[in-house]
Design brief:
By secondary structure, the protein is α+β, with helices and mostly antiparallel strands. The protein has one domain. Helix content is 25%, strand content 39%. It has a 5-stranded antiparallel sheet with strand order 1-4-5-2-3. A hairpin with a 3-residue loop joins strand 2 and strand 3.
Length: 150
């Protein structure tokens, strides 16, 4: 066989193959954790709420298809949860996983009328084909309504 045909075949296999991962978050802090603050908030915890987000990206930068357009702002998901995206991710707002988490949280909050999501857990399904990636994120938690902040 011609070396060009072999090289083209290997390149095609690499581009067309991919991998799929599923991850679910859980609390990493024990329940005896302490937070000290001068601010006191009265938060009423209600029923379970959830929200979903899914979209595809090209090169983890270009969003394809019917992408979400509304997000929760001011929430830090942390690099340990797999959404840092490195330097490019920090420039572009945390990368596609953080974007999907933020869109799912927005949906949960707006659909339920909550002020915050209490004890959120994110379920992330990612299929990665090197240049093309699909993300499905679901958040579940409890409806938190802030009654007062002092």
């Amino acid at each position: 066989m011609d070396k060009r045909v072999i090289a083209l075949s290997l390149a095609s296999v690499m581009v067309l193959s991919g991998c799929s991962t599923t991850r679910m978050s859980s609390g990493s802090m024990s329940l005896d954790g302490q937070i000290k603050s001068d601010v006191e908030a009265d938060v009423e915890v209600g029923e379970r709420i959830s929200g979903k987000s899914e979209f595809s990206t090209l090169f983890s930068v270009i969003t394809l298809g019917d992408a979400p357009t509304q997000f929760v702002d001011g929430v830090t998901y942390g690099a340990a949860s797999g959404n840092g995206g490195g330097l490019l991710g920090s420039v572009l707002g945390g990368g596609p996983v953080a974007k999907a988490k933020s869109a799912a949280a927005y949906q949960a909050i707006s659909k339920s009328g909550a002020d915050v999501i209490v004890a959120p857990q994110y379920s992330i399904e990612k299929q990665d084909y090197m240049v093309y990636k699909t993300l499905k994120v679901e958040v579940e938690g409890y409806k938190g309504t802030i009654n007062s902040i002092e």
